[in-house]
Here is the input.
Amino acid sequence: MEFPEVENHDDFHTGEDGCIHTRDQRGVYIGYDVALEDVKELENQLLLVASQYIEKDKSKTSIGPKDLS
Here is the structure.
């Protein structure tokens, strides 16, 4: 597949501090749309899990005695 408006299709991948970075031919960091979608999906899953534990903790504290006197 060729795009006349794009000079170079090469992306460069480097690893620093355990992270993989992608840069274009000019050295600018880039991110792919699908990677952003994956991050959004992961964020939603983490929010669901965190919400579950928050609700579970709330139910534990609301079961206890309301008046200790």
